[in-house]
Amino acid sequence: MALDLNSKLWLDALLAEELERYDPDAARSRLPSEVSSSSPGTPDLAPAARVLVARSMRHRRLDAAPADAADTFAETVRAHIGLALDLALLRGEPFVRADRRAEIAAFFAAAVGEADLAVAVEPQRPGGASDRAVARALRAAGDALALRFEPPGDPAGGLPLYPGTVAVFRRHLARVAMGYLRRGRLDEEALARHAEFAERELVFLAEALAGLDAAAAAPGDRARLVRGRQLTRLGLSRRALREVRRAVQAPRPAAQLAAAAPERIRSFLLEQLLLAQLRARLGAEPAGRYVDAFVEGGRIEAQTLVGAQVEAAAQHGDHQVWFEAFGDGVPHEWQRLADEWEEVADHMVERVSAAVTENLDAVVTEIRETGELGQLLARAAAGHALTREEKKKVKSQLLDLAKAVPALAIFAAPGGMLLLPLLAKLLPFNVLPGAWDKDAPKVRAAAREAGRRKRRPEPAG
Asked: Is the omega angle on the peptide bond into residue 160 within 30 degrees of 0, that is, cis?
């Protein structure tokens, strides 16, 4: 349906449409194996929520995102709803549409700061939630979502905040849902803690991105004005808004900021810094030095760095650019490639991330031995078409890498060539040689430990 944001009932209508077409069995079949294999009703949903939030942020389409801003915004909200439905599915209870509607209305209201409205629509309260209370919660949540996230994207001259703010909201929504699913009710003290933590994430996010941007170039008067308007869209309390304005005006050095950030959000901030680099096409210097300083100041491990690089690449919607840079470009292959990528995107991202983090030593060795590969991939990432000879070199060296790292061998098999350009996009070549060569012993030690953990038997029971 077409999304009518002028209607106060737009979120209610969108939720009704999603619930109408929701199929619990089909949804269960789409869950990642590490999530779906857990027992129904598991009390600890946090690991599953992390996986589901990460998957929900990835860009799966090979072609460009929808040109219509309203459609893009609607897809973002649908993904919020999908996350809430998947978490409820893991509880193992029968799907009851009225209960899901009330629960999701409560989750959304809580995540936009309307705790009173959220508590008023709990389906488990005596007598259940009234339809009027559910409608009120959805109307308030819809107004807040439109103010914060519509139109989607960031204004010219502004900070690259939008992907991170969507992720913070989704993480907040997941925490609210997990608390409810764990207790069977909403706890107002817990809701206050979740809201405060989300505000901290947003303040650190804005400061980190401002620091990254300032490392590349000092903002002008117009940029400062645009950023001021961006910050008012974050839905922060007055205290947090004053804090974030000061932080964006004078961001701390990267190492100091990373050390000050709660450990739970450092990898998220790193992921957003890497994504911002990709979206703004910021060069390795000096923005790269800012990211390196953040990694060092936060004492971020090699595996965490690789995971953040792969996730940033997966979230950046330039898949088609990479294929065009060194793919074959055969017209009749495009649709097949698009279909295959959308089908295997999550599996590929998770496989590449695991393969690289668990085989660091082998990957680093192969990259050192094929020094030209990093340069060619950097050119492709910058949007430059490679020559026929360069394409042959890239594909040959990527196949050598896939053969050297058994977990990536699927891409050396027949048909794997079609997706090799997208595999290349996900591999963190741009950072591995420079950042890790200077600390090779640490990388090798991390690789050996990852291998030991992989081979270590699981404890009984």
From this structure: no
pLDDT at 433 over 60: no
pLDDT computed for residue 397 by the predictor: 83
Amino acid at 402: A
**Which range of residues forms the domain containing residue 247?**
193-300
Cβ burial 65-89 (10 Å sphere, 16+ → b, else e): eeeeebebbbebbbbbbbbbbbbbb
In a domain, 205, yes or no: yes
Per-residue pLDDT tens for 44-64? Answer: 788 889 999 999 999 888 765
CA-based nearest residue to 118, from 87, 152, 149, 84: 84
Q: Are 11 and 105 in contact (CB under 8 A)?
A: no
Co-location of 337 and 259 in the same domain: no
Q: Per the domain annotation, does 331 fall within a domain? A: yes
Q: Measured between alpha carbons, how far is 225 from 214 in angstroms, rounded to an integer?
A: 15
Can you read off the two tokens belonging to residue 138?
């959805």
Has residue 187 got a pLDDT over 60? yes
- Take residue 173 and report the two structure tokens written for it: 């929504």
304-329 burial, b for 16+ CB within 10 Å, e for fewer?
bbbbbbbbbbbbbbbbbbbbebbbee
Domain count of the fold of the chain: 2
pLDDT in tens, 385-399: 788 888 888 888 888
pTM: 0.88
Higher-scoring residue by pLDDT: 382, 241: 241
